Sequence to fold (234 residues):
Amino acid sequence: MIVNLKIKPVNFKLSEYMSQAFDLMKKEFANIFVAFLLVIVMSIIPFCGYLALGNFYKYLDKLKRGEQANPGDIFNFDDFMPYFILQLILIAVIIALYIPMFFIFPIFALGEYSDAFVFGGMFFLIIYCLFFVFVLAFICLKAYYIPALISFKGIKDFQTAWNASSVMTKGNLFTIFIFALVTSLLANVGILACGIGLFVTMPFYYVAQFFAFDDAMKQITHDDISNLGIKEKF
Fold:
C-alpha cells in the first residue's frame, strides 16, 4: 500500500488534545496505567526509552480505535534502529553544545580572580547557559513530530523525518512549547502526592502528546506529494 504524505504546517489544537487525553484517561485508565508501567520497565534498558514511548503511542492508537491492544507490545523492537539513531544524534548535539566549556574552564582555572574577571566569567556562563537551553529547546521543538513519523508512518530515515517535522512545526513552535510546558506541569503535579501521584499524572503527558501526533498525521495523510515529496511504502 502506497501512502502519500503532503507535508505542511500543522494546525495545532492545544486545548483539544488535552481534552481528548482526559477523556481517554477516564475511559481506559487501568489499561493505560499498566502499559505505562511497562514503558518505565523497558526504559531501564539502555537506548530503549524512546522506543518504549513510540510503542506506547501505537498502543494508545489501538485503544482509541477500540481495537484489541496488548500491553506486551510495548516490548516490540521493530523500530529500535531509527529511535537509536535519534538518541545518538541528540547526544551528539548535546556534546557539541558543551564543547566551548572545554576551553573556557581551563581559562577560568588559570586566571587571576579579580572582580572584573569573576564578573566577566559569571556573565559569560549566564549567556552560555541561556544559549544552550535555547538551542536545545529549538532543536527538540523542530523535531517534535519525528516520533510520530517513525511510529505511525514508518519513516526510518532521520533526514527525511527531520525535514518533515521542520515543515510541520512551522509557525507552531511557541504553541507546541506552551503545550509541552502545560502538560509537563500537570504531569508533575503528582510529586505533591509523595511521588505516587506521578503514576497517575505522568501518563497524561504522553497521552496528550499522542493526540497531538495523531491529529498531525491525519492532517498530512491522503494528499498528493508536496514540497518534500515524501512517499512511504507500508
About this structure: The first helix runs from residue 14 to 43.
